[in-house]
Structures are given as C-alpha cells and as structure tokens.
Amino acid sequence: MTKFFKLFLDTDFLTGLLTLFIASFSYAGIGDDMKDWVFPLMACYTLFSISAVFLIKSLIKFFQNNIEKNIIISQEQIPSILNVIFFSLIVFGFLFALYVFGFWIASLLLLWVSISYFSIEKNVSTYIKSLIIALIACGVAYIVFTHIFYVPFPESRIFG
Q1: N or C: which end of the chain has fewer CB within 10 A?
Q2: Is this structure's pTM higher than 0.85?
Q3: How far is 117 from 126, CA to CA, in rounded Å?
Q4: Do the beta carbons of residue 47 and residue 26 sit within 8 Å?
C-alpha cells in the first residue's frame, strides 16, 4: 500500500491524473452543436491521449519498482507556489466575473488584478499604470476582435 502512495510523489503520475481530470471535465461540457465537433473534441482526445501516455509510463515504473520521488518542495519554491495558488484564485474570480459582467469587463479586471499582483512595486502609481495598460490592451483587443475579425464574445448573464 505504501508503494501505491509513492506514486503520488512521481510527476508522471500526477501529470497523468491532472490531464485526465481536465479532459474529463472539458469533455462533459461539450454539446451537440456543430461548433463542438472539431476543436473541443480534438482537444479532449488529445488530453486523454497525453493522460494515457503519462499514466502508462507511471504504471510501468510502478511494476518495475522504479518510482522516482521527484516532487520535493524546497523553501525557495514556496513563494512561487503561493503565486500560482493566488493566480489560480484570480482566474476563478475571472470566471465568476465572466458570468456576471461579460467578457470585456471580466478581462479588464483580470488584466488589472494580474498586473497589479505581479508588479514589484505596490503603490497607487503602479495600480493606476496597470489599469491604463489593461484598458489599452482590452481596447485594442476589442477593436481587433469585434470590428476586424467579428468574433462573438460572452455577454453578461445577469446584466445583459
């Protein structure tokens, strides 16, 4: 049994589980619309294939008693891990804002909060500069994608 738990210290096994979870989650969201035939299915099948490769590779290591414990967290990595966790929370906030406000306001908030969070200096001037950068980036993207490429974007489900 402890040999089985050593699998959770192997990056191949964890990568296989993570891609299997993401592929299963995204496959459940595919609809019957014509748009859902090519890209989402291809992406899901690719993720399932990658997951299978990593899981088979880790199972081969498991049966050959060659499991590598290559997930070791050092003190220097903890700030980076915290940044990944906080950015994941920012992305989940983006998904909530996408539902509430629609794509453009949610994107503006995502850019502004992300730039502000990852900037070295934390002061009012930096927050204003990050807002200006986010406004410019969203404005350029809005013009390019809505007036040149005519891409439809999600609208607010509550306010729109």
Answers
A1: N
A2: no
A3: 10
A4: yes
Q: What is the domain partition of the chain in residue ranges? A: 1-72, 76-160
**Residue-by-residue pLDDT tens, the chain, 160 positions:** 577 787 888 889 999 999 999 888 877 766 666 555 667 778 889 999 999 999 999 999 988 988 877 888 899 999 999 999 999 999 999 989 988 999 999 999 999 999 999 999 999 999 999 999 999 999 999 999 999 998 888 888 887 6
Residue 52 carries which side chain, given as an amino acid letter? A
Amino acid present at 148: I
Tell me how far apart the alpha carbons of residues 3 and 67 are, in angstroms, rounded to a whole number. Answer: 9
CA dist 60 and 127 (Å) reads 51
